[in-house]
Amino acid sequence: MPPVCHCLPDQVAHRRPARRERCRRTTGRSSRSARSAGRRHSLASVLLTACCAVLAGARSYLAVGQWARHAPLDALARLGVRATGPLGVRRAPSSSTIRRLLTLVCPGGLADLLGCDPTGSRHLAMDGKTARGSRTDTGPAAHLLSAVLEGGHTVSQLRVPDKSTEVTGFTKLLSPFDLTGVVVTADALHTHRDHARWLVEAKRAHYLLAVKRNQPALHNALRSLPWKEVTARRYDREARHGRRETRSVRTLTVTSLGLDFPHVAQAAKIHRHRTDLKTGKITRETVYAITDLTARAASPQAIGQLARAQWGIEAVHHVRDTTFGEDASKIRTGHGPENMATLRSFAISTLRTAGHHSIAAGLRELSYTPFTRPLDLNRTALTSTT
Q: pLDDT truncated to tens, each residue of the chain (386 aa)?
């Protein structure tokens, strides 16, 4: 009997058929056991239960199961939990059921289902994160590559195969989406000619990619440009998070300079000068970047804003670590690490959409009415994604 995969529910399978077809993979369960597991609880009701529990502050399978066990009957009805028996009693899914399904459910399908659509967006950031607590005696920790829109709204994510790097997942993660006109930013690890060519020619998107010493020839070519003669400059100053920072952005049109990179139109030199207001420590950093955006399409101010937007994905990863305790989580089995990370990212996106600037404060507010407010927000969020 061939193994099966729990993919997207039928009612949302039409959203990204290419991704759905690509995400079919083995999970180690027979089709007979998979059919029997769905007799009492539908896959959609268990996933919605997990989404609401994480929004209420749950960090583990056990916490999700405890939230479900204490949910009132009207909340279970809204979650789609089936009424069984002659009295029509609704029984919440147990912790073991939730653990089993989140371990087996297709991670690519779940990430797409709970993610935001990037169509028409201005900017999309790419970066990876390691779930450190998922390391086992026989395998490394799960490394997850994510795509995040401005404002901290996650589009999707995938787990990078062991003994591989994020580079292999770049096109695989973005291929199901319409990226026409979207500016994709990434760190120096993804500054590859094939990636830039694929974004511009296949996806009709734009790129802004950092250049560091892992590309020595390109980095040296950028350093040797006549930056002192550049007149297109932008300066910004701000004081926040206990530090004072000054940023300068210089841009230079390089179309006629023969820079060896596909579709490159501009180069940027970004200099950051930071002062710690508590210790007085001063740090300086210079970053080079390249883009296919012309000077008419992107001024130095716009380049600086796009570069700062790339750091927004680090904020999402930081919240997952500090507020949801992702690095401390010991979830390791099957697809559990990536599926729980998807639920945490979905909770962050949902709270951002609801207007919460502090995710920790938003979780506290939802915990005061844990069986009503999370369901209301989830229904709104899922309606907007389908």
A: 333 344 444 434 434 554 544 454 433 443 344 444 446 789 999 999 999 999 999 999 999 999 999 999 999 999 999 988 788 889 999 999 999 999 999 999 999 999 999 999 999 999 999 998 888 888 889 999 999 998 889 999 999 998 888 999 999 999 999 999 999 999 999 999 999 999 999 999 999 999 998 889 999 999 999 998 888 888 888 887 788 888 899 999 987 677 889 999 999 999 988 888 888 898 999 999 999 999 999 999 999 999 988 888 988 999 999 999 999 999 999 999 999 999 999 999 999 999 999 999 999 999 999 999 999 998 777 666 55
Give the list of residues 6+ apart from residue 308 with CB closer than 8 angstroms, or none: none
Closest CA to 56 of 46, 41, 71, 44: 71
Give buried/exposed letters for 42-55 (b at 16+ CB in 10 A, else e): bbbbbbbbbbbbbb
Phi, psi of 181 (to 5 degrees): 80, -5
Q: For residues 294 and 297, give the distance between their C-alpha atoms in angstroms, rounded to a whole number.
A: 5
Q: Are 51 and 114 spatial neighbours (Cβ–Cβ below 8 Å)?
A: yes
Long-range contacts of 133-137 (CB under 8 A, 24+ apart): 133/326, 133/327, 133/328, 133/329, 133/330, 133/331, 133/332, 134/329, 134/330, 134/331, 134/332, 134/336, 134/337, 135/332, 136/332
What does the DSSP 8-state code read for residue 59?
-
**Cβ count within 10 A of residue 57:** 18
User: Rounded distance, CA 204 to CA 114, Å?
Assistant: 25
Which pTM does this prediction carry?
A: 0.85
Copy the structure tokens of residue 109: 């399908």
DSSP-derived secondary structure for 256-321: GGT-SSTT--EEEEEEEEEEETTT--EEEEEEEEEES--TTT--HHHHHHHHHHHTHHHHHHHHHH
Q: Which residues contact 252 (CB under 8 A, 6 or more apart)?
A: 225, 226, 227, 230, 232, 266, 267, 268, 269
DSSP three-state, residue 165: coil
Please state, in angstroms and rounded to a whole number, the distance separating the CA atoms of residues 50 and 375: 11
Q: Are 145 and 160 in contact (CB under 8 A)?
A: yes
